[in-house]
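Review form for a predicted model. The reviewer records the input and the model, then writes brief findings.
Reviewer: anonymous (R2)
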Amino acid sequence: MAWSRYHHFAICKEAPFDDEPQAVRNRELCDYNVKVTYETARLGTAGRPVRVYADGIYDVFHQGHARQLMQAKNVFPNVYLIVGVCNDDLTHSKKGRTVMNETERYEGVRHCRYVDEVVRDAPWEVDDAYILKHKIDFIAHDDLPYGSDDCNDIYAKWKARGMFVATERTEGVSTSDIVARIVRDYDIYVRRNLQRGYSAKDLNISYLSEKKIRLQNKMHELKDKSKKVMNSLGERKVDLITKWEDKSREFIENFLLLFGRERLTNIWNESKGRILNALSPPSSPMREGSPTSSNGDLFDSFEDNLSPPRKSARLESLSPQSSSSLSGRYSSVNEYSDEEEIAAN
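Model under review:
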């Protein structure tokens, strides 16, 4: 009756520590003089709860830990499960630094539904005195050899005595695996925690790194919002693109109507003279009688202005006497001179 009342209590509340009154009472109620064999424990004929002990570090308590404790709780029909958790000093000296401190690890284990009692400051290797103090019938652990400085398997003695029950490890999950994931995805978790309000000091990163990561967060937020907007549009995306194309085509057509081909041609004809004057400075003053370009179409007369005027037309207009005298003069002169022409006239 007392056991059934405690069993209900354990399910509804966290497991007590070994020095708390409820744990002390349950230990006193156990008649340890009645030895429990593996066979009687398996058949459920021991006459009292079988006290099974499991120990470990239980850092970053995860489903692998919970599954191991569940197996230890169900290894026999009527089990009182005691779990020993090593403190920080011992753990750091044997296995290295933990993520959670000892208090956090104690609390994580005692809130597991399969645990009936928690022993703080548990030893790395249990001895006969420890077994007697806690009235332990069996030790539960995975069957792989667990070495130490003094021996290859710290559970070998209990295996030889028939006081060992094996549990199975959960493949693919361990505290080391979880830490490895965090290290591998370090940048992702830093951005995540900065977004949740942690400071650069909390995360042990520099000021510049913090600003860089916050900028990356903003860019990711903008990208996600853009995706959500486009996804929310759905089939309307095609309609919006079509409407945009129609509006752009309408704008171009209106522009051409306002500044059509004829209008643009007139503007060009009116302003091309000013454009040429702006691009090319005026030439030096021309001598009197020199050919000049027309003020009309500069493009049409440009080629004619490059060549000198023809002399034959002026020679034909002279009298016969002048022609003969000039012909003699030009026969001795290879180049035409404007000064001589003026003197002849």
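Findings: The longest helix spans residues 207-233.
Further findings: Residues 87 and 310 are 118 Å apart (CA to CA).
Recommendation: see findings above.
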